[in-house]
Design brief:
30% of the residues lie in helices and 20% in strands. By secondary structure, the chain is α/β, with parallel strands linked by helices. Strand 11 and strand 12 form a beta hairpin.
């Protein structure tokens, strides 16, 4: 069994949430890492402007200070996005990070976009796995001595949920790497739902969508990257997912394998504001369950499995997206995205040696 450390969000006048995070760091195994003079990548998701479910920079500050106190040199980082938005190049990305509060002043470390100005700076790492022989990992992450993933645990439309494995895999891929992971995921247009509003046209970063003579959206699959932006922006459910969730999840795990190859990696999951959509979108909704706590582990498979189990055991928030279904015995993530099975990614990650689903949950108070 892998050890997964857990502290909940109950506080007192003698111990606030940041104090509990410090306790988790001091007792959760991360102190075993030799940080002295090491460049430490703090891999996080800065959040798309407009989405307020992303993690607060206050948490990063605690982690960065812990690393500096132990002789390390931390930097905060993320990679450019495949879809059109406010984080598709380093200039906009850094501006977005600043808008959401991530700066040297608030976090205690510098902010770096790991794959450069346009997402083309990467290191190709040989893995020779089922889907990918090599993986295009963002240069600053690939060149770091140590990686700490800081993860907002929430739902995800292509992986079921996003946690340590997604942040390590999809989040560490360069733009070209993300394209490789999404390459089997091109959507289709349900014509009877399309109103011709052209929101999908204007939001497609690849100019792959246009309106035909009947004012209905059509996709040019020679240009489509499969990023899913059209699905997110459409208010009428005209673009429909036709992605190969199995292939995408497995490729994402292979990228996580490449990112962590020959490196010391530690993972911290914040199970709070468990929104039904990823922080990539410019909106968020009511969380599907109550805030649960902070968990950490060297094993991303055990960590994500423990978080998924805790979410599935938690009462559903009544006025959330899945609230009308009541607190029945069903998978919370599958209730949000019925066509996605998150077990595929977790099982494959275990198969290729990223970790184990067997875990021991150690409660720290």
């Amino acid at each position: 069994m892998s050890k997964v450390y857990f502290t909940d969000f109950h506080t007192s006048s003698r111990q606030n949430i940041l104090d509990k995070l410090k306790m988790l760091l001091s007792q959760g195994g991360i102190a075993e890492i030799d940080f002295r003079k090491k460049l430490v990548a703090l891999k996080i998701h800065f959040g798309e402007p407009g989405n307020l479910a992303y993690l607060r920079p206050n948490y990063v500050s605690v982690i960065a200070n812990f690393i500096k106190e132990n002789g390390g040199v931390p930097f905060l980082t993320d990679t450019n996005t495949l879809y059109k938005g406010h984080r598709s190049n380093a200039v906009d990305h850094l501006k977005s990070a600043g808008e959401n509060g991530f700066s040297p002043l608030t976090t205690g470390c510098n902010v770096i976009v790991a794959d450069g100005l346009k997402g083309t700076e990467y290191k190709e790492i040989e893995i020779n796995l089922k889907h990918c022989k090599t993986a295009k990992i963002a240069a600053a992450i690939a060149n770091a001595d140590i990686i700490i993933t800081i993860n907002h645990f929430k739902c995800h439309d292509m992986a079921g949920f996003g946690g340590a494995l997604k942040n390590l895999g999809m989040g560490s891929g360069s733009v070209g790497g993300k394209l490789e992971m999404h390459s089997d995921s091109q959507p289709f247009i349900k014509r009877e739902n399309c109103t011709g509003c052209a929101d999908c046209v204007g939001n497609c970063a690849y100019e792959a969508i246009s309106l035909d003579k009947e004012n209905i959206a059509v996709i040019d699959y020679a240009k489509c990257a499969g990023c899913g932006q059209c699905i997110a922006v459409c208010q009428y459910d005209a673009p429909q997912a036709r992605f190969n969730s199995k292939n995408l999840q497995e490729k994402m795990m292979e990228y996580a394998f490449a990112t962590s190859k020959s490196k010391k990696v530690y993972h911290i999951n914040f199970v709070m504001d468990v929104s039904p959509n990823c922080d990539c979108w410019h909106f968020n909704d009511i969380p599907i369950v109550q805030d649960i706590g902070i968990l950490s582990s060297f094993d991303p498979v055990a960590l994500d499995k423990a978080c998924a189990d805790l979410v599935n055991q938690a009462p559903v928030i009544n006025n959330s997206l899945i609230g009308p279904k009541g607190n029945k015995d069903y998978d919370r993530f599958n209730a949000v995205f019925p066509n996605v099975d998150w077990n595929i990614g977790v099982n494959y990650a275990e198969t290729i040696g990223l970790g184990t689903k067997n875990y021991e949950l150690l409660m720290l108070k």
